[in-house]
Design goal:
Elements lengths: L2 H17 L14 H9 L7 E3 L4 H11 L8 E4 L23 E4 L2 H10 L4 E4 L22 E6 L8 H13 L7 E6 L17 H11 L6 E5 L3 H9 L4 E4 L10 H8 L3 E5 L15 E4 L1 E2 L9 H14 L6 H10 L2 H13 L12 H13 L12 H10 L1 E2 L16 E4 L2 E4 L22
Parallel strand pairs: 1-2, 2-3, 3-4, 5-6, 5-8, 6-7, 8-9, 9-10, 11-12
Antiparallel strand pairs: 13-14
Length: 447
């Protein structure tokens, strides 16, 4: 779900608070007409709070002007959308005038950790996106008796989403000595061409690479590429239908996971990485959510494809079991507009801190220096092995490295061979660029 859908959901929460008669809330969209801007500035000293539902050049300029007026300007509430790993690039000059009285709103503890890595004395509130009210939720208990388990991926087709690792996991399932039920994979989403801008790495033909990889792995009859679909279509034809949602993502700002939530609230099994915002769903959907560990490597975060394959197999085995409706309702309620409005009112009732300037951490100061060194806005890390990037990878869930026992059996990809003289890796598959995270050497986890 895009920011174009999330921002209105946040605004509806504030509208609800305004209708509660406990607060007077006015929503303004920038840029403002000159007369409206003059009236707003005239009221600056009387404002109780300034809320930025998203940070853009327009909202930053408006916030800076309001902050410059009055001896004790109103505190700000700033919604964070993956800004920590980007070094708060979108905030621009706003980071220079923030105080400890201001509040960052995040959707998961992982994102809270990234914000604290940049501003150690900050005030952070964890409030999820109120998305359930926007979802089409199936009240009927649909269960499949098909012999083939339908896997579904919903999201952007991007190197950071780690789809190549998912294809490798499906190949391991298919070629394993351990019998596995037949599965299909439906991929819904368009190629975004984003690459890894924080590392200055461009994207070149990732969608083509994935199709060629599926052919090489003998999965052409298993994987269907549907491209981008309208949100309502996806709800009716994917999230409400029997499936196991899979998401091997290692994306740098995976701070919530709306597609994961949409499948969970419809009672389906989900297999995803223990990364960013996905971890918050474990409390509400313990019977449905399988989190696959993310490990450290010299080239950044990696996922063991054998562990991923095992997780998919386990979830497929549970997919026919119905989830108790009471458990689903509990999870749905936690991400509803009413629940989020209550948590937001709780935030507003807390006493203000002193307006002490918010100090940047050494990490944030170094990122600012890096941005100047690299001569651009987006690139702030040398590569995926950058020690500063590791701070945010660990905040998002990157754990200890994988260790391989030399006596264990190994799974070699079709393009890898070995002999007494060494290992040979064929390079026939077109290289989409050096942007995708590595999978790490797979091992056979089953004896």
């Amino acid at each position: 779900m895009s920011l174009q859908e999330m921002i209105p959901a946040i605004e509806r929460v504030w509208d609800r608070i305004g209708r509660s008669e406990r607060k007077t809330v006015s929503t303004v969209c920038v840029p403002l007409p000159p007369e409206r801007e003059r009236r707003l500035h005239a009221r600056a000293s009387r404002l109780e709070r300034i809320v930025l539902t998203t940070v853009t050049p327009g909202t930053v300029q408006a916030a800076l002007r309001l902050r410059a007026r009055g001896e004790e300007p109103a505190p700000m509430t700033l919604y964070v959308h993956g800004d920590g790993p980007e070094g708060f690039e979108a905030f621009g000059a706003l980071t220079e005038v923030l105080t400890e009285r201001d509040t960052f709103v995040v959707t998961c503890e992982a994102e809270a950790t990234t914000v604290r890595a940049c501003f150690p004395n900050d005030q952070v509130e964890l409030i999820p996106f109120p998305l359930v009210d926007l979802f089409k939720v199936n009240s009927r208990k649909r269960r499949t008796t098909d012999e083939i388990t339908r896997l579904a991926y919903v999201g952007r087709v991007s190197e950071q989403k780690n789809l190549h690792n998912l294809l490798f996991a499906l190949w391991i399932m298919r070629t394993s000595d351990v019998p596995a039920p037949p599965v299909t994979l439906d991929v819904y989403g368009g190629e975004d061409g984003l690459g890894s801008p924080n590392m200055g790495l461009a994207s070149v033909g990732y969608g083509t690479f994935l199709r060629e990889l599926a052919e090489t792995l003998g999965l052409a009859d298993v994987v269907t590429w549907h491209g981008a679909k309208p949100r309502d279509w996806v709800f009716y034809n994917v999230h409400q239908e029997p499936h196991v949602l899979v998401s091997p993502t290692l994306h740098s700002d995976e701070n919530f996971g709306s597609s994961v939530l949409a499948s969970l609230v419809n009672g389906h099994q989900v297999v995803t990485t223990s990364w960013g915002g996905h971890q918050v769903f474990r409390e509400w959907f313990p019977e449905q959510l399988t989190l696959v560990p993310v490990h450290a490597s010299p080239l950044g975060p990696v996922v063991d494809p054998v562990t991923l394959a095992d997780a998919v197999l386990a979830a497929a085995g549970r997919s026919a079991a119905a989830v108790e409706e009471a458990a689903l309702e509990r999870g749905r309620a936690a991400f509803s507009e009413a629940a989020v409005a209550t948590r937001t009112l709780d935030m507003l009732s807390r006493p203000h801190r002193a307006p002490v300037p918010l100090q940047k951490s050494p990490v944030q100061r170094r990122i600012d220096e890096r941005r100047a060194e690299f001569g651009g806005k987006r690139k702030i890390y040398a590569d995926y092995g950058d020690p500063i990037a590791r701070v945010f990878f660990e905040a998002y869930g990157m754990e200890k490295p994988l260790h391989f026992d030399e006596r264990s059996d190994y799974v070699l990809a079709p393009w890898v061979s070995h002999s007494d003289d060494g290992v040979t890796i064929a390079t026939r598959i077109a290289d989409p660029g050096a942007t995708r995270p590595t999978t790490g050497p797979p091992r056979r986890a089953r004896s």
